[in-house]
């Protein structure tokens, strides 16, 4: 199976976690795009979605799924999103699509996080994927120095030769060379640095379940 096919099978498998009559939390990325395609087949059975990015909002609306603001709903039963890396405890690196802040906000509002990922995303220790960190631009150089001090190599993410601007109007640093052996401690530490909007380690809001696309089909990993 190609990586695209693996993403499609987990996108479809995630429908099992969607309960009719509910609002679904929807993440961002190419795997989630497969989920949105699948969710369109259930659109008459759900109330709608809360989305983690302008890109997913546009896709949801294009298939006729109503999108609600986070502030219009209380607890969301399930949040379905991809990951750049996931470890055997369900801790993740996210933000390859620059949507990490809104992703963490919707994840925090959701009872369960269902991660959908192809097998390449499962790692022993987080950090081979450059860690995305959303930052307020005036703090970016100091935050870069703080990552250098930890042995990381931060790079400002560019788009068309200019700093990428997130849906929240901020910038992204991608930090290479980290080995995150204590995801809970690392997330807590970086979150305290002034100017960090959000760090792409999802440890305090880790996955409850990972639907992993493998050559043998969808493997379900449970973390709680
Ligand atoms: C976006 C994300 C994505 O979930 C992550 O980058 C995985 O994306 P894809 O499904 O395209 O591999 O965190 O900010």
TrEMBL record:
What does the record give as its pathway?
Carbohydrate degradation; pentose phosphate pathway; D-ribose 5-phosphate from D-ribulose 5-phosphate (non-oxidative stage): step 1/1
Key words of the record: Isomerase
**Could you tell me which Pfam families the record lists for this protein?**
Rib_5-P_isom_A
| Any one GO BP annotation for this protein | pentose-phosphate shunt, non-oxidative branch
- Which InterPro entries would you find in this protein's record? NagB/RpiA_transferase-like, Ribose5P_isomerase_typA_subgr, Ribose5P_isomerase_type_A
Q: What residues form the catalytic site here?
A: 103 (proton acceptor)
Chain positions recorded as substrate binding sites: 28-31, 81-84, 94-97, 121
List, alphabetically, the GO terms of the cellular component aspect: cytosol
Q: What is its EC number?
A: 5.3.1.6
Q: Which GO terms describe its molecular function?
A: ribose-5-phosphate isomerase activity
TM region positions: none
Identify the enzyme class: isomerase
Catalytic reactions of this protein? aldehydo-D-ribose 5-phosphate = D-ribulose 5-phosphate
- Please give the Gene3D superfamilies that the UniProt record associates with this protein: 3.30.70.260, 3.40.50.1360
Q: Which domain of life is it from?
A: Bacteria
Q: Which family does it belong to?
A: Belongs to the ribose 5-phosphate isomerase family.
Its biological purpose is as follows: Catalyzes the reversible conversion of ribose-5-phosphate to ribulose 5-phosphate.
Q: PANTHER family in the record, alphabetically? A: RIBOSE-5-PHOSPHATE ISOMERASE
NCBIfam families for the chain: PRK00702.1, rpiA
Quaternary structure (record): Homodimer.
Q: What is this protein called?
A: Ribose-5-phosphate isomerase A
What organism is the protein native to? Tibeticola sediminis
């Amino acid at each position: 199976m190609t990586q695209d096919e693996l993403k499609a099978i987990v996108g479809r498998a995630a429908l099992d976690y969607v309960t009719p009559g509910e609002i679904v939390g929807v993440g961002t990325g190419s795997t989630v795009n497969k989920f949105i395609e699948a969710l369109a087949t259930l659109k008459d059975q759900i109330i709608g979605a809360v989305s983690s990015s302008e890109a997913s909002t546009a896709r949801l609306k294009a298939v006729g799924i109503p999108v609600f603001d986070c502030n219009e709903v209380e607890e969301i039963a399930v949040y379905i999103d991809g990951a750049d890396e996931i470890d055997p405890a369900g801790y993740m690196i996210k933000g390859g699509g620059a949507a990490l802040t809104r992703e963490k906000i919707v994840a925090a509002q959701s009872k369960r996080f269902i991660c959908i990922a192809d097998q390449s995303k499962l790692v022993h220790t987080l950090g081979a994927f450059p860690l995305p960190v959303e930052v307020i631009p005036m703090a970016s150089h100091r935050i870069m120095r703080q990552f250098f001090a930890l042995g990381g190599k931060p790079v400002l993410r560019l788009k068309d030769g200019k700093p990428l601007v997130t849906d929240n109007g901020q910038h992204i640093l991608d930090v290479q060379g980290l080995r995150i052996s204590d995801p809970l401690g690392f997330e807590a530490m970086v979150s305290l640095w002034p100017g960090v909007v959000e760090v792409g380690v999802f440890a305090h809001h880790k996955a409850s379940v990972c639907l992993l696309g493998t050559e043998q089909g969808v493997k379900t990993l449970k973390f709680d």
